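Continuing from yesterday's entry. The apo prediction looked reasonable, so today I'm repeating it with S-adenosylmethionine included to see how the binding region is handled. Same sequence as before; SMILES copied from the compound registry.
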Amino acid sequence: MFHTLIKNLSARWKSYRYRFVPWIALNFKNRTIRGVPKGSEDKVISDKQVEDTLKTLFTKINGVSSKPEIVLGVMRDVLGFTVEKAKSQVGGTGVYVTNGAVPKGTVLAMYPGTVYFTYEPILLQSIGNPFIFRCLDGLLIDGNDKSISKLIYRSCSKRERSGPYMTSDMSWLSSDGLLNPLALGQYVNNQSKKFPANVVYQEYDVTDDFPLHLMKYIPNIRYSSTHHNTETRFIRTVILVSTRDIKAGEEIFSTYFTMVY
Ligand SMILES: C[S@@+](CC[C@H](N)C(=O)[O-])C[C@H]1O[C@@H](n2cnc3c(N)ncnc32)[C@H](O)[C@@H]1O
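Holo prediction written out below.
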């Protein structure tokens, strides 16, 4: 009987398709589901566009001071807009476009955090944690910037550094300085009737050919060491892409409920 229970649970988990894990999804009564046809991979812009945006922004930020006003100034010059955290219109903290305008189909944020493969232990970190994001292939990203999640991200980042090079951004965990101004996607709230979604999530895997000196701006790190895992050395990132033009002053909303059918 126990065996059947585990089998059923595991089958249900495999067919689970929402972006946020069940303990977050349960909080929402009125779920508007975004359907994605199976096999479409759910990409609204190409990997090449994502890569170009990240490389261009990181190259311009590289070497400037980590003072937020300086970094945001560079972001404004390069991308034509800035995004920042502020009190949400629906609950807690949210993310707003604070300057300029975001055209449709633009990378405007990233979902930072520790990346867990399906076989890695996340239970302890996940209890009461509303920041666990689920990728379409089941990988989980813990974007919580507090408590045990924060300690784990920091220690994995230190483990992965490559000689003088940091291979991930830790600045989203504190207010000591800003490296990657896009790394605030974990604070984007779920859409509602009054505030329909204006962004979607999209997976983007950073591979070995990404310039090593720009890796310090990648706000994701693998829970397990990449060095022992030659087949899967990529770093999963998740970006948020605008689905319409967004003006300064508007809050960003996504849909936590993406259903693959
Ligand atoms: C990933 S966090 C988003 C950031 C969060 N607002 C905060 O201040 O930390 C997810 C949590 O935000 C809240 N949230 C997100 N969308 C919401 C909405 N439309 N209405 C009310 N609360 C929402 C819920 O508490 C949810 O568990």
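Comparison notes:
- The domain at 2-260 is CATH 2.170.270.10 (Beta-clip-like).
- The chain has one domain: 2-260.
Will overlay with the apo model tomorrow.
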